[in-house]
């Protein structure tokens, strides 16, 4: 299997996504841009904690920040998530084969075995 | 956006995928089961290094190991990758909107501005 995806960038994206809080922040930003202050309240995080998470997301290219000096609103850039989806989708034939085998197994369980009662 | 995916499990999957080597091991296992010895050679890794990566993948449910005491072949379980794809696909409308905006911008660049030459 060959994927034309920048490998190092993808590692950084996966590392950034390996946090429930950071994924929740992305979910919030999908509804629109927000400041660090906006993000702190719903997630019960301190401002420095939010800033730290935002920096990780920014480095991974998942968040871009505005230039307004005081607020610098954070916005979602979903492009790296498309790379994640494309990477994972390579394995669709593998997980589908798994479900096909399970279906086949369930069908066998449900089909009365011919000759058993004979 | 709501996703019915086990959050902790997903964090573990993303952490396991944040390594070029571990993703390459999964790529190799997509072609069929392999022993730790089989995996060491192509990746120029020591056996302990491969074992360590395999343990991370096993904990994330991406690799299952056979019971044969000596070889314990490793096999890919792609089910967590379906969860990754499902999670990322939530954001498809966001990245598609981004491309739509870019298309629109390019179209504007290519359309000769009426009245400019007047």
How would you portray this structure in words?
2 copies of one chain form a homodimer. The model of chain A has no long low-confidence stretch (mean pLDDT 86). The first copy, chain A, has 118 residues and is mainly α. The first copy, chain A, has helices at 7-17, 20-29, 36-40, 47-59, 79-89, 92-110, and strands at 63-65, 74-76. Chain A contains 6 helices and 2 strands. The longest helix of chain A has 19 residues, at 92-110. Chain A is 58% helix and 5% strand. Chain A starts with 6 loop residues before the first helix and ends in an 8-residue tail after the last helix. The first copy, chain A, folds into 2 domains: 7-85, Winged helix-like DNA-binding domain superfamily/Winged helix DNA-binding domain (Arc Repressor Mutant, subunit A), CATH 1.10.10.10; 87-118. Chain A is elongated and about 70 Å long. In chain A, strands 1-2 form a two-stranded antiparallel sheet.
Secondary-structure topology with pairs:
Two copies of one chain form a homodimer.
Chain A: H1 7-17, H2 20-29, H3 36-40, H4 47-59, E1 63-65, E2 74-76, H5 79-89, H6 92-110
Helix pairs in contact in A: 1-4, 1-5
How would you summarize this macromolecular structure in one to three sentences?
Chain A is mainly alpha-helical and 118 residues long. The first copy, chain A, has helices spanning 7-17, 20-29, 36-40, 47-59, 79-89, 92-110; strands spanning 63-65, 74-76.
């Amino acid at each position: 299997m060959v994927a034309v995806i920048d490998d190092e960038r993808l590692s950084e994206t996966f590392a950034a996504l390996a946090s429930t809080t950071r994924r929740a922040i992305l979910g919030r930003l999908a509804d629109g841009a927000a400041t660090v202050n906006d993000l702190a309240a719903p997630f019960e995080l301190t401002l420095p904690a939010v800033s730290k998470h935002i920096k990780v997301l920014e480095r991974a290219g998942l968040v871009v920040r505005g230039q307004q000096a005081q607020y610098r609103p954070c916005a979602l850039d979903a492009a790296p998530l498309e790379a994640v989806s494309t990477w994972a989708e390579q394995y669709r034939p593998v997980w589908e084969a798994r479900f096909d085998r399970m279906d086949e197994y369930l069908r066998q369980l449900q089909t009365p075995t011919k000759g058993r009662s004979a």
